[in-house]
UniProtKB/TrEMBL annotation:
Protein source organism: Frondihabitans sucicola
Pfam families referenced in this protein's UniProt entry, alphabetically: adh_short
Protein name (database record): Short-chain dehydrogenase
Classification via Gene3D superfamilies: NAD(P)-binding Rossmann-like Domain
InterPro entries cross-referenced by the UniProt entry: NAD(P)-bd_dom_sf, Sc_DH/Rdtase_CS, SDR_fam
Keyword terms, alphabetized: Oxidoreductase
Length: 238
C-alpha cells in the first residue's frame, strides 16, 4: 500500500485485513503505528527512488501492490504563477506510480503474478480546469496503467484501473458534491481483484463520464466551462 496513513489508503489497509490478508505493508511518508500485528509500517515516499528500491528489496512476499498515494494541488494550468504544482502532481501521481510498478513488477512475478491496483480518477478522462495538473497526471497514470497491463500480462500480473468521482477523504473536504465512502471503493476494488476485473468504475460519476467519452466535448465540457466562468466572474466581483 502506498499512502496508507489516511484517507482511502487507510481504508484499503482495513479492507485487506478484514478479508484475511496475512500481512499488509503500510507505506507512508511518516510511518504510522497500527494495532494489528499483520500490518508492517514502511517509510515510503513514492518520489524517493532510494525508499522505493528499499521497499521492493524488503517486501519480497508482496502479491498485491496498491498505488494509492496521490496529491491534488488545486491549481489551474494557465492562470498560476508557475508550473510547479503540475510538476509536483506528475511527480507523485505519475512518476511515483511508475516507480512503484517498475520496482515491484519482478517481486510480483516471483510470487506468481499477483496484481497491481492503480487508484486513478474521473479526472483521467475529464480535465478539471481548477486543478488542471491533477487531471493531466491522472490521464498519464491511466495511460501507464493500460500499457503496464499489456506489458505484465505475460508474467500473470493483473493490472487494475480504479476510477471514481469524489471520495469522502481529506483531499476533497471543501467539496460539497456527493461523495462515495472510501470503504465502498475498497470493497468494490477488492471484489474486482478477486474476480480478475481490469477496471473498477466505483460510482455513477465515473460510469457516466466514461460512457460520455465519445462525445466528451459536447457532453462533459459545457458544464465545466459554466463552472469555470462563474468562478471567474465571482472573483472579478470580489
Ligand atoms: N478523494 C477523492 O475525491 C478522490 C477521487 C478519485 C481518486 N482519488 C485518489 O485516491 C488516492 C488517495 O487519495 P485520498 O482521497 O485518500 O486523499 P488524501 O486523504 O489526501 O490522501 C493522500 C495520500 O497520499 C499520500 N501521499 C501524498 N504524497 C505522497 C508521496 N510523495 N509518497 C507517498 N505517499 C504520498 C498521503 O500521505 P501523507 O499522509 O504523508 O500526506 C496520503 O496518505 C489518490 O491517488 C487520489 O488522487 C481521490
Amino acid at each position: 500500500m502506498t499512502g496508507a496513513g489516511r484517507g482511502l489508503g487507510r481504508s484499503f489497509v482495513d479492507g485487506l485485513l478484514g478479508r484475511g490478508a496475512a500481512k499488509v505493508y503500510a507505506g507512508s511518508r511518516v510511518p504510522n503505528s497500527w494495532d494489528d500485528d499483520r500490518v508492517v509500517p514502511i517509510e515510503l515516499d513514492v518520489t524517493d527512488p532510494v525508499q522505493v528500491r528499499s521497499a521492493a528489496e524488503r517486501c519480497r512476499d508482496v502479491d498485491l501492490l496498491v498505488n494509492n498515494a496521490g496529491i491534488m494541488r488545486l491549481t489551474p494550468l494557465i492562470g498560476s504563477d508557475d508550473d510547479s504544482a503540475a510538476r509536483d502532481e506528475l511527480e507523485v501521481n505519475f512518476f511515483g506510480t511508475l516507480a512503484m510498478c517498475r520496482a515491484f513488477a519482478p517481486v510480483l512475478a516471483a510470487n506468481g503474478g499477483g496484481a497491481i491496483v492503480d487508484v486513478l480518477s474521473v479526472a483521467s478522462w475529464v480535465a478539471p480546469p481548477a486543478s488542471g495538473g491533477y487531471g493531466a497526471s491522472k490521464s498519464a497514470a491511466w495511460a501507464l496503467t493500460n500499457a503496464a497491463r499489456v506489458e505484465l500480462r505475460e508474467q500473470g500480473t493483473l493490472v487494475v484501473a480504479v476510477h471514481a468521482g469524489f471520495i469522502d477523504t481529506e483531499m476533497v473536504t471543501r467539496v460539497k458534491a456527493p461523495k462515495i465512502s472510501p470503504a465502498d471503493v475498497v470493497a468494490q476494488v477488492l471484489d474486482g481483484v478477486e474476480s480478475g476485473a481490469e477496471e473498477i468504475l466505483a460510482d455513477d460519476e465515473s460510469r457516466e463520464t466514461k460512457a460520455a467519452l465519445p462525445r466528451d466535448l459536447e457532453v462533459l465540457y459545457p458544464r465545466l466551462q459554466r463552472l469555470w466562468d462563474g468562478r471567474r466572474r465571482g472573483r472579478a466581483r470580489e
